[in-house]
Structure formats: C-alpha cells, structure tokens
Amino acid sequence: MTHSPQAPPTRIPGYDGGPFHHQPELLDDHLFWLGHLHNYFSESEEAEELVGETDEQEAGALQSRLLGGDTRPVFTVPLAGGHRLYVVYRAFEEDEGIDYLLHHPDWDAAQHLAHDGGHFMGPGLSWAELIAAADNRLPGGSTTDPHTRLLLLLPAFGDDAVPDSAVERLTAALRACTRVEEPERLATALLEDQGPYGPAQWTKAEGGYPINDGDHSFRNPANRFAWPATCLARAATALTP
Length: 241
Prior knowledge:
The protein is of the alpha+beta class. Helices cover 36% and strands 13% of the residues. The chain contains 9 helices and 6 strands; from the N terminus they run H-H-H-H-E-E-E-E-H-H-H-H-E-E-H. The longest helix is centred in the N-terminal third of the chain and has 16 residues, at 53-68.
C-alpha cells in the first residue's frame, strides 16, 4: 500500500510537544496497528484472544518505542474547508498516549478531540463523522487509503447507533491492514465494546451541532471540561459528513 509522502507539521499550534516526525512506513506495519488499537482490544476479552499473545507482545514493544522515544510520529487526515485531523503520538514521560486534534489554519490553537491513553478522553467522533473522514479522499494527508484512515481514527470514535454495515466496513479495514485470522469476529467485538469510553449517544444541540452524552467527551456540554458552544459549532463545520 502506498501512502502520501507529504510530511505533517513539525509543530501544531497550541499543542505542547514536538518536533514531530513523518513516518508513513508505520502504516504498512501489521504490528503498528495492533499497538495503535491496543486500548480498544484491552476492553474486550474476545478481541484480545483474537489478536494472539505473541503478536500482542511484539506490538506492545513497538508501541512502547513510539511513545517512549524521540520519534514522535504524527499522522494527518485532511477534512473539507482546509481543516485537519492530527493523530499525535505523545511521548511525554508518565503521560504518554495518542492525541486526536482538530485544527484549521485560521484557528489560534488546535482543539483536543480525544485522547487514547491512561487518562482517556472521548469519544470525539460519531460513526458518520469517522466514515466521512476516512472516505473523503482529500489529498495532503498521510494517506488517502480509507481503510488506513478508518483504523487511524477508530480510537476517537464512540457511537451507540452504528449501522448494520459497520461490521462489514471495519472487517474490510482490519483485513487490509492487519493479519488477524478472524477479522469479522474482531470487528464485531470492537464495535460492541468500543474501547475505554464505550458507545455514546449522539444528538443535536439547540444550535444544530452534534453533541454526545459521553462522561469523558469534550463534545458533551454537560461535562465541566467540554468545549464552549462556539468550538462545538466549528467542529461540526469541520466534521459534518
């Protein structure tokens, strides 16, 4: 599989850390994906069994190197209107994890959409938003491949109303990017548990923008750490399918 050679920014406005590095070769590594989705797997006993102990250990070693060294990979998914989703491997000592950021060149700072790590935050994407970002084929990111994009963004997703076609779609991505022996069973398990924050219900706020009821989500106005209404609205502009 060929991915875009366009490098991401070495710094992201309003975000600590960096400089970041362009490592598109990771997207072709079966073990990278097992590590990237580790927290999703760990919430499901069936998923952990389907991955296999040997692969999981090797993937964990790779993930530890990515989160514990100076490589600090970042991946970019372009959205309509010049918006960008950044998937950042945050190599902060004792606070490592993967951050999902939303940004536009006109904004002073990127917005945290989700965090996959010890202090997890999310969900940040509904199923419709996830698929729209995966399928838009816009150039200028780390890859235009929809399977790769779907798995990159999957840990930021949580939705209690996924369509019947979701299992088939996730199965295809797992088959394309990993070597798991039963991708359909794994897809079913992942969509049932949906990682550490689990499924969330998505509705529309009075302003017409999507919000959810996740206890750890920036897009739940009931949370004390939620984005203000202006940020919720502009996120909807960026993410609306």
